[in-house]
Amino acid sequence: MQETPELQAGDSVSIYLDGNEVAQGLSASIATVDVLPGSHKIKAVLKNEKGQTLKQIERTVYVIQNNTTLQNNKKIAQQLLAYQNLPWYQKVLLKMRQEGKQPNMQSFTKPIVDKPMTLEQPVIN
């Protein structure tokens, strides 16, 4: 935005995105992480020290992709791949947990060990 005549002491600039003020000053950086993909309106409003609007300009900007959505999609894809690589019995356990059933985990994680066999015969009195 080029302003003629030049800014005077006490003048202020406000930046709006979709009608909401997001920054003040002569330069601003607006993160698009929380902005959904698509078209958005950005507006700069120049006001004097009395709060009167001297000039405003509005443009349409386009957000191509949302980084948060992209990161979430990657995380979901990684989880799906990890699930697909699980052995069948771990998939069954996960399914049972999702259905609210809690299998006896001890039988799955700890092998049952019988008493050790010996070659000695018990002494009979």
Could you describe the 3D structure shown?
A 4-stranded antiparallel β-sheet has the order 2-1-3-4, with no helix packed on it. The longest helix is centred in the middle third of the chain and has 18 residues. It is of the alpha+beta class and 125 residues long. It has 3 helices and 4 strands. The protein is rod-shaped, with a radius of gyration of 33 Å. Strand 3 and strand 4 form a beta hairpin.
Overall helicity: 25-40%
Low-confidence stretches: none
How many runs of DSSP E, i.e. beta strands?
4
Shape call = rod-shaped
Q: Strands of the largest sheet, in order across it?
A: 2-1-3-4
What is the residue-averaged pLDDT?
Answer: 79
Terminus-to-terminus distance? 108 Å
Topology overview:
Blueprint: E1 12-17, E2 20-24, E3 38-47, E4 53-63, H1 67-84, H2 88-98, H3 105-109
Antiparallel strand pairs: 1-2, 1-3, 3-4
Structure summary:
The protein is an alpha+beta fold. Helix content is 27%, strand content 26%. The protein has three helices and four strands; from the N terminus they run ββββααα.
